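Page 47, continued from p. 46.
Same chain as before, 246 aa.
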Amino acid sequence: YEETMRLSRGILFGIILLVISIAVSSVLYSFFNFTISPASNSPTKTVFYEVKKNETPQMIAGELEKLGIVRSANYFYWYARLTGKIQKFKAGDYKFSTKMKPAEVCTIIMSGVSFGLPFTVPEGQNIRQIAAILEGVRQGSGERFLKLVQSQKFIKSLDLNPASKTLEGYLFPDTYLIGRKTPEEEIIKQMVAKTLSIFTPEVESRVREIGFTQYQVLTLASVIEKETGAPSERPKIASVFHNRLK
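Result:
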């Protein structure tokens, strides 16, 4: 009887070990398959997700699963933790694809580089035209942009004192990368800062030499820009206007 019991216990123990081994193997296979597979086999979808500063790795993993960026929050969390990537996660507004593998998702979150929409302002555009361009890039921003560039309170906050009541002439034509949620105030500040960067000490000295204010220089530059699109012609046109002003 005792021998039979020992044999039974041995068989039971062997069965338990086998079940545990199969379960562990299954989990390991599933985890490995997770690390090398995209979140979805369906047609590619673009998904945006903002990682906030106060979010824990578990919260991030959970949101990524909800949005369909990863297949399993638990697997993603442990993958990022075991590979040491989790300590390098950074806040930002990111763009993902449902075809990305976990390693690619981690790389984006570790980059700290938020997704940017290209906002291109050609030369010679007035404030209404610029507002329309911004509206085309990010719906809902154009109207607020236009209000701000005409707001005396906002203009005063930039330490500017233009002769006109708008920021006409201070919005530098260039291509800017703006986030989905970048405040319009920040966009305008970037544009104004780019314009003011032109006024180096040498330029400021020349401005004083000809008896102009900063605003007058920008105004004259705008007038010249309207006269010609050819850079080679601008010095001649500028000299004509200076002569007329004299």
